Write a sequence for this structure.
């Protein structure tokens, strides 16, 4: 396993409902990442289709594996890159049951996927109208280290990143489609989730305007002590490379030993109280 | 929550950038050649004109000045011209009086004493001019409704609120005024009393029954689910005044939405037919 890896944060805007064009852009940015000697390129939440597609989601969703993931698998194989991107995933066992999914592909094929657990359905968001929530956190042992996945609103719930970390993830990837009005929340939450877990956290957000909703970008890599190591521009497409040096985790963990100090008995109490709340 | 004027303060640079990006992206995706807007000489339309010019370049923006004899005010024309010159947009003056008079003569039940119905003909006639220019010149119509008017229903249905985009619709009037100053408008113009110009000497604040400074705070409180009691207490005004605003705020939702239809089929326009707005 590599102790140092290079990430490419591909902060793109998606063409809504146009998978062909979005796959072309994913290919373009993956090649750019390859040229920049990156190991892993990360794209935003639902970058395959765009975020605000309403009822069209039923026409756009695909199974995994499916035609779009096959294209990405071929791309990963051809370039030797690892790729993470977001797409609406159609259940293989139903006709119209869809998940908001992050897909992790490597040169040897699909490494894994994560189905968003917390679906925002308030304010401008209507995800529960369309998506079924996921039930499992995700951490994958890969040649690039143990990498965990989460999606956007999951960051408001510390248990997702915590579970990912407890499963071994040292780098947590959050793909996102966060609108500008929520920027300040995400700037706090990304740092908090990294710091409280003493793990690296890469946040890759969408940009562009979809039905009046403006996505703010600001993708970033956060260190295990909560520092912003790299940051993409606000509000416009950007491409940023940055390095994850896993050897930074040990000094962070000794200095802020949150994992050593975990109190499992509180989790039982937390469960009990959240059921009664 | 403390309901003081400071709650309405915004990062105006960020607001300006967000609106400019919104306008530019919409017009580009629509494949349109630019924007047509009504330039009344008021602060809302002036601000929209300024933002449109800053987003697209003034040569892609046309401001239509649409006066008519009953409400004609040379100050409004001067103010509209000032904005056009300052932000470099093109203008066209069209006196809509002959068209209005034709309508007055042609409508069998026309009642000259009913100034609201008559005034609405003026607002809807202006809409027809704007859409004619937009169709003919491959432009989109940019509206200038602000959030105070929108939430109070203080506009003519299918008249002044009819537009393809309304970039100021999420800003209360007092916020629009601050944005105008931020964009370089003289303070006097930014503070100019607002009028829909449906009849002579019509003033928005007189009709709404209070200053925008108070109205905007009431609307801000209602937006954030505060009760009329809380709002009245904090603003030291009568609860009945807040309740009056709230009743109107609730009653005119029909003006802000697609026409209602009974639910009969599988998916219904305006209710559960949810499609993305494609502009390209």
């Amino acid at each position: 396993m590599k102790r140092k890896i290079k990430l490419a944060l591909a902060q793109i805007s998606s063409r809504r409902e146009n998978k062909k064009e979005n796959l072309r852009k994913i290919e373009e940015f993956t090649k750019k990442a390859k040229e920049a000697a990156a190991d892993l390129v990360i794209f935003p939440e639902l970058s395959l289709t765009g975020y605000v597609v309403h009822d069209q989601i039923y026409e756009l969703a695909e199974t995994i594996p499916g035609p779009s993931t096959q294209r990405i698998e071929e791309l990963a194989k051809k370039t030797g890159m690892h790729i993470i991107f977001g797409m609406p995933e159609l259940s293989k066992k139903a006709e119209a049951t869809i998940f908001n999914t992050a897909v992790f592909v490597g040169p040897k094929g699909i490494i894994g996927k994560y189905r968003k657990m917390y679906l925002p359905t308030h304010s401008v968001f209507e995800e529960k109208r369309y998506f079924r929530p996921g039930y499992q956190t995700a951490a994958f042992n890969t040649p690039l280290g143990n990498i965990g996945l989460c999606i956007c609103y999951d960051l408001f719930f510390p248990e997702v990143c915590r579970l990912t970390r407890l499963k071994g993830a040292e780098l947590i990837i959050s793909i996102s489609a966060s609108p500008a009005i929520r920027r300040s929340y995400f700037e706090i939450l990304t740092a908090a989730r990294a710091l409280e877990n003493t793990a690296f956290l890469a946040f890759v957000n969408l940009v562009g305007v979809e039905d009046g909703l403006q996505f703010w970008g600001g993708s970033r890599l956060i260190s295990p002590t909560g520092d912003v190591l790299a940051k993409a521009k606000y509000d416009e497409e950007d491409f940023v490379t940055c390095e994850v040096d896993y050897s930074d985790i040990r000094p962070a963990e000794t200095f802020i030993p949150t994992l050593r100090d975990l109190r499992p008995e509180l989790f039982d109490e937390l469960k009990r109280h959240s059921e009664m709340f | 929550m403390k309901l003081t004027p400071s709650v309405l303060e915004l990062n105006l640079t960020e607001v300006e950038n967000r609106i400019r990006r919104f306008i530019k992206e919409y017009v580009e995706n629509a494949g349109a050649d630019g924007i047509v807007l009504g330039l009344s000489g008021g602060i809302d339309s002036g601000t929209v004109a300024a933002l449109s010019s800053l987003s697209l370049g003034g040569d892609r923006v046309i401001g239509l000045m649409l006066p008519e004899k009953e409400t004609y005010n040379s100050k409004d024309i001067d103010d509209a011209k000032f904005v056009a010159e300052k932000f470099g947009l093109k203008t066209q003056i069209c006196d809509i009086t002959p068209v209005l008079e034709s309508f007055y003569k042609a409508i069998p039940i026309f009642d000259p004493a009913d100034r609201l119905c008559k005034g609405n003909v003026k607002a809807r006639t202006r809409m027809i001019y704007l859409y004619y220019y937009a169709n003919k010149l491959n432009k989109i119509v940019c509206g200038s409704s602000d959030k105070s008017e929108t939430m109070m229903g203080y506009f003519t249905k299918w008249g002044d609120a009819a537009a393809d985009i309304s970039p100021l619709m999420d800003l209360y009037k007092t916020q629009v005024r601050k944005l105008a100053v931020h964009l370089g408008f003289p303070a006097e113009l930014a503070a100019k009393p607002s009028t829909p110009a449906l009849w002579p000497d019509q003033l928005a604040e007189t009709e709404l029954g209070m200053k925008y400074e108070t109205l905007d705070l009431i609307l801000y409180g209602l937006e954030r689910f505060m009760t009329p009691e809380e709002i009245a207490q904090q603003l030291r005004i009568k609860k009945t005044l807040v309740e009056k605003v709230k009743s109107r705020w609730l009653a005119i939702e029909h003006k802000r939405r697609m026409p209602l239809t009974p639910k009969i089929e599988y998916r219904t326009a305006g209710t559960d037919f949810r499609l993305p707005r494609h502009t390209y």
User: Anything to note?
Assistant: The two ends of chain B are 42 Å apart (CA to CA). The first helix of chain B runs from residue 12 to 30.
